[in-house]
Amino acid sequence: EDQVTQSPEALRLQEGESSSLNCSYTVSGLRGLFWYRQDPGKGPEFLFTLYSAGEEKEKERLKATLTKKESFLHITAPKPEDSATYLCAVCPNDYKLSFGAGTTVTVRA
Amino acid sequence: DGGITQSPKYLFRKEGQNVTLSCEQNLNHDAMYWYRQDPGQGLRLIYYSQIVNDFQKGDIAEGYSVSREKKESFPLTVTSAQKNPTAFYLCASKDGTQPQHFGDGTRLSIL
After folding, report:
1. Is the bond into B8 cis (omega within 30 degrees of 0)?
2. What is the mean pLDDT of residues B79-104?
3. Which of A45, A85, A95, A96 is the best mutation test for B, with the most CBs of B within 10 A?
4. For the residues A41-46, what does the mean pLDDT come to?
5. Confidence grade of residue B41 (pLDDT, cut at 50, 70, 90)
6. Nearest chain B residue to A5, by CA
7. Do the chains contact at A43 and B42, CB–CB below 8 Å?
8. What single-letter DSSP state applies at residue A55?
9. Which of A95, B16, B20, B31 lies at a C-alpha separation of 20 to 30 Å from B47?
10. CB neighbours of B102 closer than 8 A, spacing ≥ 6?
């Protein structure tokens, strides 16, 4: 059975304090690992797709990396507007995504 | 602008009542999905449809039903058989190998 575990559950940061979120996974065959951002009361917003170990993607203050067993989402010099829940999902086949429970990030000014 | 529209934003269900959540997309995507989100848990797949007039059960289909009569529409009915329906329901769609795009959800509560 596919499993996705995200840690920590919650992360409180000062503005400018860089940190990393972890997503560890077990899946029979990985067709992609996805990162989404979700604001309260909203649907998830797509951030990145990673397909193979060693791959990295960047967008503004966010950088996602992938190994064979886990992915990291690095937040560099975060701002209050980066406060959100970050969701990780793996795709074992063409139609299904298996999601982790998410990491809720709060950035204080 | 293209996107996914879910309605209503908030919905209340009485005991023994069936309720239907609407999901409409104008992205011309073939595949559509329904997820349920509970606090502290990941999104769980209820039903999905890869093409019009066809749909499959996801991981937690009991107590739910769907239809896919039109490409742009994928309504979800929460039946009285679903004993714990209070949750945030999310609809998504995708095209080919592209990532899933989500609507802004419907929050269902019990009266």
Report:
1. yes
2. 93
3. A95
4. 96
5. confident
6. B42
7. no
8. -
9. B16
10. A36, A43, A44, A45, B4, B90, B91, B92
- Inter-chain contact A34–B99, Cβ cutoff 8 Å? yes
Q: Is the pLDDT of residue B86 over 70?
A: yes
pLDDT for the residue A93: 78
Placement of tokens 């991981």 in the chain:
B59
Q: What does DSSP assign to residue A66?
A: E
Give the HSE-up count for residue A36: Cα atoms under 13 Å, Cβ half-sphere. Answer: 24
Q: How far apart are CA B65 and CA B105, in angstroms?
A: 17
Q: What is the mean predicted confidence (pLDDT) over B86-99?
A: 93
